[in-house]
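Internal ticket - ligand job 458, magnesium ion:
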Amino acid sequence: PFLDPFPPLPGLYTSFGFSLFAFASVVYLVPKAGPSFVKAGLWGRDLLKVYGDPVPESQGLICASVYILTLILFIPFAFSDAFSSHFNSKSKSEPEGLSVNEFPLYQLSVYLSSILSIIIAAILGFLDDVFDIRWRHKLPIPVVASIPLLMVYFAEGGNTNVVVPIPFRGMLGLGALVNLGPLYYIYMSLLSTFTTNSINILAGINGSEVSQALIIALSVILNDLLYLPWPVDFSIPVHLLGSQREVEIGGVWSAGMAYGSREMVERHLFSLYFMMPLVGVCAGFGYHNWYPARAFPGDTLCYFAGMAFAVVGIQAHYSKTLLLFFMPQIFNFVLSCPQLFGLVPCPRHRVPRFSPETNLLYPSRAKLESKDGKPRPPSGLAALILRTFSVLGFVELTFGHDGEITETTNLTILNVLLVRFGPMREDRLVKVVVAVQIVGSVIAFLVRYGLASLVYDG
Ligand code: UD1
Ligand code: MG
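stdout (structure tokens):
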């Protein structure tokens, strides 16, 4: 069955134009607004520099504001199809007005609930910048912020099945699909907690937060573009993409175009509408945040950008692909767990140590001692984890006379890179982080479109 031709491109071009505008606004506004932020007490010292001048902090607020306004201004364009059919039907002197059934109300609710979740995340991030909220207090907030998304997902009769990889089917006696039911909703709400926090804890060197967000957003965009009905035959990758869905939904694009249902194209268009302006604001902000930084993103940027990723992953139904783009963040999170959950002491800042003499960064260390400065040997579990990390080359340990661990390098990917590759300048380390993120995305695409067909019947 052939679907009606569906012209997705006008909205895409408009969104691209809005994204350029968002980029230019952020480039212009950040230096303009900086002094007001400093005046309001929103500034920080660059920990890895010799100078101590105040650098405006929480500038992610400017990005979030421009981003949210762009998304809101774009609403009428996202639904331009509905307008044009409205006016066309008028000219043919058919009954006036658009009946509720004709207007894509469901898509509108997807769009609005997404904006709502992103706004909540931006508010949370800003409050965190101002009040330094304890993380056990702020952890549940993204879960609450994701309720509007989950409700809309449910309203659509959202899929809660997961495809079981072929090797596990026989082993566990499972079918091709397993319905996770409510567990799937818990997974999706935790996804938003993960995406919001994981970028924030891979931070502390100029440009790191914003470049992670930028590369993930560009990867998501590339993935979305694969699903659009291009008027050329990309049959090799597209065949892999489409074949499974084609059976599920029964839609095929006209000959020579990409396979895929109209529904799938609409979802990826929705994702593009949210990701392109994100790239705009992140690129604009990256210009000022790049080494040596003239502005800091604050938690506001990490939170709203993280929530934007959760939103598209959930609403456009590709959360697992999305997580593949977060591989460096997943690694950094798993590595951080002993410090996050209190097995190993966690200093306020885990950023690398800067030496003014050499102008290089070295791995920073955490002393294994209690709050009053007395040595506190690690618990059996903590010692086991640290020794394992040490064997894997992730940490450097220091031992006391009795062979107990007295110090470890902090458990972040930044310190791992310094342990592995040796001391380096801050601008070099951020380029290494960028390279890691890009390599991660390349692997993600290989896994998603190469390996996936080995373990899943696509
Ligand atoms: C997270 C990290 C913390 C890291 C901090 C750096 C965890 C659990 N928390 O804390 O280890 O030290 O981010 O952002 O992993 N800063 C710089 N250069 C930069 C960016 C930030 O020196 O390029 C400093 C500035 O002093 C800035 C401060 O970090 O004011 C911002 O820290 P904040 O975002 O509040 O830290 P957290 O997100 O709580
Ligand atoms: Mg932060």
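Auto-summary: Residues 1-6, 233-259 have pLDDT under 50 and may be disordered. The two ends are 20 Å apart (CA to CA).
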